[in-house]
Amino acid sequence: MKPISFAVAMAIVAFPAAAATYRTAGLEVSNPWSRPAAAGTTGAGYMSLANLKTRPDALVRVESPVAERVEMHSSSMAGGVMRMAKLERTPLGPGARQAFAPGGHHLMFIRLKRPLAAGDKLPATLVFQSGARLTVEFVVGTGLGAPAAHAGH
Ligand SMILES: [Cu+2]
Description:
mainly beta; 1 helix; 11 strands
């Protein structure tokens, strides 16, 4: 059985190589991913967001049928303590890219309606100031980034 479990582990670790890219109206989301989480708790969302247009835009809201609500947060280290702040919007200047990553800017899926297991897909719709809407799937993976970033939630 060993070779099989090794293959499964490799598939999970390697999923960013098969990263999905979503585009609409000059906006691009690549490699949306999340972490395993229990129902009723808070899940995290990570991705790379780009504004390919020559005009500014902003991510103003995120909706998901799988969570009670979705928030945008920033995180920073202050005196060895990770602090998070809720953001009302994520501005995207012309040509700008914004990473959502562990320890930085991220999405929080508050009060998950179902558990997230590795391999699951978590649907969410990103709503922009320009009126553009982009529905993406956050792929639930393991073994990436800083593990305890959301211990305080
Ligand atoms: Cu947070």
